[in-house]
Amino acid sequence: MSERDAVDPETVEHVAELARVDLDAEELERFAAQFADILEYFDTLDEVPETDAEPDLANVMRDDEISECLSREDALRNAPETEDGKFKGPRVS
Amino acid sequence: MGANAGNADAAEARDDDGLNAFVTRERIEGSGDGPLAETTVAVKDNISTEGVRTTCGSAMLAEYVPPYDATVVERLKAAGATIVGKTNMDEFGMGTTTETSYFGPTRNPVDTDHVPGGSSGGSAAAVAAGEADLALGSDTGGSVRCPAAFCGVVGIKPTYGLVSRYGLVAYANSLEQIGPIAPTVEEAAELLAVIAGPDGRDATTRFDEGATDGAADSGTANGDGHPAEAADYAAAADGDVDGTTIGVPTELIEGVDPGVREAFEATLDDLEAQGAEITTVDLPSVEHAVEAYYVIAMGEASSNLARFDGVRYGVSGGFDGNWNDAFARAREAGFGDEVKRRVLLGTYALSAGYQEEYYKKAQDARAWVKRDFDSALEEADVLASPTMPVPPMELGESLSDPLTMYLADANTTPVNLANLPAISVPAGETDGLPVGAQFVGPAFGEEAIIRVASAAE
Predict the structure, then answer these.
(1) Cβ atoms of residues B422 and B450 within 8 Å
(2) Would you tell me which of B79, B116, B152, B342 could form a disulfide with B108, CB atoms 3.0–4.6 Å apart?
């Protein structure tokens, strides 16, 4: 199997960026150590034979139907910030 | 820093009995009518209740009030139940001990220095302590069965697709089901009958399965009804196991704590005396079930929890910088350690370069587990194992080593991977702590496991 890059704090930081979680330095160190153990354990999946599983799926698609939905007020009720009846979010870039 | 146990003191202040089973106590009186009239039900705090705070045990949702009821809650109300509150849980369902909750741990009513199990620990503790007649939990890798076993009550994880997940805050949506927790098998079965059924708002509640005569098979559409429509769960609690074959997987007994094993084997002896035939079966695939479960669950969690960015609900990340900065701040503040761990590991397992290595192999393992269980259930009517390989841990004992905690799920996770139903029923004690026996059935075979469990209790 392929060699895994050592799970160092830089790797954890990269993954944290992908996941949009702003970890501090202490967390980066701590998680790096824990991840190494956990990922080593996951490596035992190499022993599993490959399968071509036939998933038991049913097609549940249907045409769109217009029905009642949440009122605008209800939809906005839990938002930390709203403006003009819309969710307010941070700048995109 | 993270957001763990920030509210432990507030939790103690709010709680009357020291168990901390509830995050929110709020009574919604039921009408006088229906199968659950005069019955109180506690609802796990990841199940949406309109107008009642639903926190998922997380700082991220500490103030979130759903604008709608989950389908199962609508069904509870229609059955006349009185809802008494929202129960404590491991944050977003991630844990085996209910110690990762932002609102502090729940204590086991049987011995308050020990954990009640998780992630539905609050629900099981509430029932065991008599604070609610019944409860709902959710089970992704054992989260109904584990706390039922640890608190000495009954818990059922239904077949995937039996009960609607509409309104259940998703952790791992290909694995989870809402399930009943009750003092007896018959009461758990009655609650299952209330919540089970098809739901147009959850496309994974199957419509094409008919008679409950064995393993799910895409070729046998015996009817066009949902399986719950043809079943009578409460009637199945008749204790009649004469002639039933019970298969015990060797892999789920090895390595089990000796006190747990002794209690489990005494339960099997009792079933044999009632006419059941006990055999052993081999499930080599379950050796890989825990890893496969965690890779799949963490991968799905990383996707399902991506919605928590602090814009539509949750802790806001403010408006400095761009959206990536803001979202990252919101999630750092709102998520506890275990949630961060799983979101990161899931992101890693699904990321470019690693997906083949982890996620694809986990799916292969899942297919293997399913096949193994299906063949074993051709030899035996139900399978049996101790629900948990260990007795309830002491509070605080498990938190320093996540991997050891994950391994405690060895007996429960294979069932979620295989999409099968399972029940945990009290099976005695070891050193004064409850032990549970688990019975696993074929797909939509809830009646078979209810029957065996009713003979065992």
Answers:
(1) no
(2) B116
